[in-house]
From TrEMBL, chains A, B:
The keyword Cell membrane does not apply. Confers DNA tethering and processivity to DNA polymerases and other proteins. Acts as a clamp, forming a ring around DNA (a reaction catalyzed by the clamp-loading complex) which diffuses in an ATP-independent manner freely and bidirectionally along dsDNA. Initially characterized for its ability to contact the catalytic subunit of DNA polymerase III (Pol III), a complex, multichain enzyme responsible for most of the replicative synthesis in bacteria; Pol III exhibits 3'-5' exonuclease proofreading activity. GO terms for molecular function: DNA-directed DNA polymerase activity. It comes from Aneurinibacillus thermoaerophilus. The lineage of its organism: Bacteria, Bacillati, Bacillota, Bacilli, Bacillales. This is Beta sliding clamp.
Length: 380, 380
């Protein structure tokens, strides 16, 4: 194998696939990046047990010549060194060549590295995917949907299925649901797909989605998603992003969302978030980061917390409106902060149905987002 | 105690003194910040076993009114909470008041905190300093001198005196020296002081200097330094910065600096640094981060390293000049990288006196800086 490539192109490709490199693995070859040189370009691949990323770099794109003098072949190089070396090389071009013992020469300007490589034939194969279920949505929308749900997945493995985000497609509407059983969040969007296409219970690990969102560009170019029984494949530009799908049945969360509310409060998202963040400064020291919210006779919403060993805090927020019964409720401030940061709306509507029933936070401006938080019982 | 202060002024003052707060201490009151309200302003103080910082905020400065309605008094507040609370308060002004049980009310806008404070009378006193030995130098110069020396102090406590930077003043010239016994760095500068003032063996802990340099502004206003037997006091604006001085005698380092060299090489600092950084990418995996340098018959300087389990690297640098004998020497790349990053000069002059003798790196443009590195013996 031999080729000469623009250093910037190689750096970008390494940065992308590196997100799938196992930092801890019992399979040494997975600490490497597989490089395959074809007649018309090169492919870089990295993989861990959950995700695999493949990036293709064509010889030329538009009027740019990115790669020259390709002799086809392949090698696996230690990703830790490959990335640092290429980033620090002095020239604009890099020449990579491999000998029969997989010793790889990387040269640029007056710098020459010889790295011990591995045989690419020992590298595991990526999943074969039949492209039957395809949907498309803009990259920036997918990125936003991930950001607005993934924070709510369970971080412990008590119920492994809850460490993923559940995807469901029905009538051209994609829904993402995440819950750690103390709070729940859903995000919906219309997407392009075959009219007949529908699925549910596609549960993608939260960690995979966080890595995917780092790879997605911040513009509205369309991303294709292919769903199979145990894999999802995301295609964007020259990148293929594979993630496994979690085994098991996601709980039916539709039933826990209350349909009627006894009180509805409309608040400025920013003002309310500021008050909750301050109230949680002291509460964080306590066990459960509990803050209390109640509607005062003078029409104000009061948020407070009390951590006897440190002190207490009282915040007032002026709501736009309060409809219904008085409210007096306690909850984990972190869940509220997460939810408010994920709401893309100037104002929010909170619906309560009782001191011990889950309450709902929605943007006032649209119906795409719903957060649900379970209150906690306190003695105060 | 009670006063109302501009939130920005209070935040700045907390940020400054927080650098001296003990994160781990057996004296609980030292986790706090002492606030004293005087008739004409307030003083914040924090301290750990090595350094103490005091910041005064006057009631008014120029046409700005910073503090209003002062009732004198004092309290010690937990620094962890105080900083976060003040940073997140909603209003532009903050009112702080303390009751007789040291419970402190911090209010701003619609937010009110009650923090459990401590009695300021239990806070240790700062050292009393007689201002007999005073010198002055520009803040940015002092900051540069610290940056250019402090990296070379010992990080282990085997010889505690080497964890400090040694200061010496003679004939209006201030010298800073740091060494960890494998490399040494010196930085000199002319300063303003009484003609009769001179001192040596003033060894200031490296950690104190790092904190001091965070407090120093990036401009050329004059900083006053007061030296006593066991403390140094730095005065800048309304800040007093105290550090203890290390006990013991700093080794006489002047004798280990070779006066004659057998070979002198002049190189571009940036090009040479790039080559050493790349050569050390693989060497870092080895035990001592060793790279080899030799002068080739074709006039080039070759830098290489070999880490059998990973690979090897060869770099070429074209020197501006090579005078004297051929050189073949091995050294720790980290020491060279540290030295080159601290040289404010486009080109450097390296003087060698033999494969096992210390070598010297100096800027070509001035004489204020000298780095010395001990080579290592290798079998290669």
């Amino acid at each position: 194998m031999k080729f000469t490539i623009q250093r910037e192109q190689l750096t970008n490709a390494i940065n992308i696939v590196s997100k799938a490199v196992s930092s801890r693995t019992t399979i040494p070859i997975l600490t490497g990046i597989k490089i395959v040189a074809h007649e018309d370009g090169i492919t870089l691949t990295a993989s861990d047990s959950d995700i695999s990323i493949e990036q293709y770099v064509p010889m030329e794109s538009g009027e740019h010549q990115w790669i020259e003098d390709i002799t086809p072949g392949s090698v696996v190089l230690p990703s830790k060194f490959l990335g640092e070396i290429v980033r620090k090389l002095p020239g604009e071009q890099v020449t990579i060549s491999v000998n029969e013992r997989f010793i790889t020469t990387i040269s640029s300007g007056r710098s020459e590295f010889n790295l011990n490589g591995m045989n690419a034939e020992d590298y595991p194969c990526l999943p074969q995917i039949e492209e039957d279920k395809i949907l498309s949505l803009p990259s920036d929308l997918l990125k936003t949907m991930i950001r607005q749900t993934v924070f709510a997945v369970a971080t412990t493995e008590t119920r492994p299925i809850l460490t993923g985000v559940m995807w469901e497609l029905r009538d051209g509407q994609l829904s993402l649901v995440a819950t750690d059983s103390h709070r729940l969040t859903t995000r919906k969007a219309s997407v392009e797909s075959a009219a007949s296409l529908s699925f549910d219970n596609v549960v993608i690990p939260g960690k995979s989605l966080i890595e995917l969102s780092k790879v997605l560009p911040d513009d509205d170019q369309l991303v294709d998603l292919v769903i199979t029984d145990n894999q999802i494949l995301v295609k964007i530009n020259y990148i293929l992003f594979y993630s496994r799908i979690l085994d098991g049945t996601y709980p039916d969360t539709s039933r826990i969302i209350p349909q009627n509310t006894k009180t509805e409060i409309i608040l400025s998202t920013k003002e309310f978030l500021g008050a909750i963040e301050r109230a949680s400064l002291l509460a964080r020291e306590g066990k459960n980061n509990i803050v209390r919210l109640f509607t005062r006779p003078d029409g104000m919403v009061e948020i407070s917390s009390n951590t006897p060993e440190v002190g207490k805090v009282t915040e007032e927020v002026a709501p736009s409106s309060v409809d219904g019964e008085d409210v007096k409720i306690s909850f984990n401030a972190k869940y509220m902060i997460d939810a408010l940061r994920a709401v893309d709306s100037e104002n929010i509507r909170i619906g309560f149905t009782g001191a011990m029933s889950p309450f709902i936070i929605r943007p006032t401006e649209h119906d795409w987002i719903l957060h649900l938080i379970l209150p906690v019982r306190t003695n105060q």
